[in-house]
Design goal:
With about 425 residues, the chain is mainly beta. The strands form seven sheets. Strands 17, 18, 19, 20, 21, 22, 23 and 24 form an eight-stranded antiparallel beta sheet that branches. A hairpin with a 7-residue loop joins β23 and β24. The longest helix is centred in the first third of the chain and has 21 residues. It is globular. The N and C termini lie far apart (about 60 Å). The model has no long low-confidence stretch (mean pLDDT about 90).
Amino acid sequence: MKRFVENRFGLLALVLVSLVALYGVAYVTRPAPQPPAARPVARKVPVESVTAVCPGLKGEQVNVYLPGTLTHEKMPDAAPYVTNGPGGLEAGYLARATRGAARGLSGVRCTEPAPTTWLVGPGPANADVLLHLTNADKAPAIADVQVYAAEGPISGDAGTGLEIAPGEHKDIDLKTLAPSADIMAVSVTTVYGRLAVAARTAPHTGGVDWLPVAAPPATRVVVPGIPGGGGRRELLVAAPGETDAQVQIKAVSEDADYAMKGRESLDVPAGSVTSLDVTTGVGGSSAALVLTSPTPIVAGLVITGTGGSSDVAFTAGTPALDLGSTVARNATGSRLVLTALGGPGKVRVQVVTEKGAPAKPLEVSVPADRTRNVKLKTKGDFALEVTPVSGEVYGGRVVEERLKTGLLITTQPLAPARLYTMLPSLTDTARVVAP
């Protein structure tokens, strides 16, 4: 053994035998391989309670919808209308004027308090824009209002640190924050508390309507519910971050999906808003626009009616109908504009009136990568519930009334219903307490 140990080759062999033995023991006793960790998936959970806030308009009728039932109430004054209820609550109203400065159809979906709200539309240089901020909670709120224009962020410090007491509301003329903006995107961020936000817009060229809440910045934005017919269609795209956006645009009409000739892409400088006339691009067809960009963007669209006295309407980027949607206030002349992307889609449409049994649900199929109009033959006042059946479907509700003086029009993108919400998954991590 002594000679074996003193022999350098024997010592090397001994080391090798020891290593092989250790490796063998480690291999036999190794733990079973663990499967790769699954990516966190958001859970669909029911909404238990809802607060809906309608900007005040004296004398107008607010419709309040709860699953299967519809009621209404008159607003006694110009104070905000606040209603509370269980999951599925929706509220909204339509206003109609045939003459004067407020001529037009205007519709609003009563919003719920949110930490951040985005709005896109004409700026104060081209329209009278009144921003409504309502604190329906029992705690004070502090908000920052940022206006983005073609030249970049322009509201500065004037819109920061706005204090709104519990139960209080403030109306802000955006001319006081950004008088030079021709087009705009507005973000309202609540630093503390929660606020319900709405904006009434009356372009100097005529018409009036409420700006719908736009989907927050994302790299893919779908702007649905673009009605067919005459009149101008103007796309507005904002890149609120610090990186320029190169936006690719695809139209999905009743007959085809395509890149609009000469309007296939749009460059949006960082922190600014850019407009694009897509009137000839959609060619008078009902449509949706699909925007993709490596940089998050926010988008909306301005719809101008026809006739001697033109009306105006707005739509904006909106999620798919995965959670369903409800429009509490509709009228004679209403229709749906539905678009299916990536494959065929199907939805169930339920009309609910205040009196009588609910109508039989209507199942509507939409061909893949096409847009379809669905006329609603119900007369008078009714609520509308849209439930997804299959596919990736987006939509909007359109109300039109033809007068000798010109078309009255309002649109409302189909926002997610308040029956369910997507709850992000939570994971254990030390990063929340790490310095």
